Amino acid sequence: MRFLKVLFWLLLGGVVTAFVLYNGEQRVSVLLWGGLIADFSLPMLLILLFLAGFLPMLLAYHAMRWRLRQRIAGLQRALEDLRAIHAAAPAPTPVPVPAPEALPAPAGLSPAP
Prior knowledge:
Order of helices and strands: HEEH
Structural class: mainly alpha
Strand content: 5-15%
Number of strands: 2
Largest sheet: 2 strands, antiparallel
């Protein structure tokens, strides 16, 4: 699985490099507030926009993973505490149940002959 992950990132890096080499000279004018105009190269603008969308999702993903790991660790600690309490408690002694013949007959009914 790690090989496929590395291969994916290498291919993505190759595509980005080819895009930068092919379109490196193109300039894009971006109209900003107050009549300001920013002049960017096309590859730099696209890479910046990609990172602006990718990084917040990456941070949210890592925060979710951290939160879930903390939750799992807390549940594991609680489970270990319960197992320790259960192991330290004495085993319950079974209560003997009398045989059906030894039970007294209910009041008002005579025993069967």
